[in-house]
Task: structure prediction
Amino acid sequence: MKVTLSVIKADVGSLVGHHVVHPDQIRVASEKLKEAKDSGLLIDYYVTNAGDDLQLIMTHSKGVDSEEVHKLAWDTFSEVTEKVSKKLKLYAAGQDLLGTAFSGNVKGMGPGVAEGEFEERISEPIIIFMADKTEPGAWNLPLYKIFADPFNTAGLVIDESLHEGFIFRVMDVYEDKVVDLKAPEEIYDILALIGTPARYIIHSILRHKDNLLAAVASTARLSLIAGRYVGKDDPVMFVRAQHGLPAVGEILEPFAFPHLVAGWMRGSHHGPLMPVSMKNAKCTRFDGPPRVAALGFQLNEGKLIGPEDMFDDPAFDRARDMTNRVADYLRLHGPFMPARLGPEEMEYTTLAAVLKKLEARFRPAGKAR
Ligand code: F6R
Ligand code: MG
Ligand code: MG
Result:
């Protein structure tokens, strides 16, 4: 059967600053999605959170960009904002709900969306990754390793069904364009683009031999949606696993290296991405370090069997330890680049105001004696 998986997330307010979703927010969202399941709109759902981001994991048969499903997500976020976030005076209530009225699709209105329709295989393992205090480009490095790096994914070399490679659909979020590039043949071109993760973001991955959808990431950047920076758009993605696709362990492997991502405090710093269990999917130190949690499901006629908490495992202890050591090192830089992001990427800046204030005091450098 054809099934659509829609992972739609938004930060609609949280407990103790930008820390964590409140249990009542999960409860209200779950009630709303249960109604949708009872009415037949959804096949199944799972509500969770990564830090201050409320995550709606939904399966249905309505296809991508379904107005009904997107309206359900929008109404759920709005209801959670009204019934819980505002009532409890949670922090930044309704933060990601930028539009005032729903107009057919949540894309461009604040929430992040990773959505795909595919034929459910005889057995369909899927991993859903959810990150907090970073941006969609954070998936570029792990997705590259999973689908193009034979030192990560043994199957690319030794499994005939992966040997023909994958297509990387890369989005230029400034120009709102996509380009399809084939690995392994075009890996240098792929890397030339995705090494700039603030601009070129992997949108999705397809298996070359049959165009089978292998992975989908959320690609909206709130900065560009709102015309100004309103918060790092903490990203989600899902990756299908096994039997002609990378194995679950090959999909998790890149996260054993806590690579540097943009985000962290005030969305204006680089930090290592720490793989954590769901219990630890909440940011503390310097509002971070940025975190990634992963839930594994098996689909069964669209039903979500699971979840498994994939990073709840001592095998990732060393990545967490490395994260803490890298965080110590980066924090020693205080307000200096490259620990702090470059001026064009910062979510908060006083630079324009400082320059204005000092305008009259700047004088030609030749007279600085
Ligand atoms: C980063 C983030 C936090 C806030 C910081 C300041 O994505 O959400 O680091 O930027 O806590 O928040 P405000 O300006 O709301 O006090
Ligand atoms: Mg927040
Ligand atoms: Mg967040």
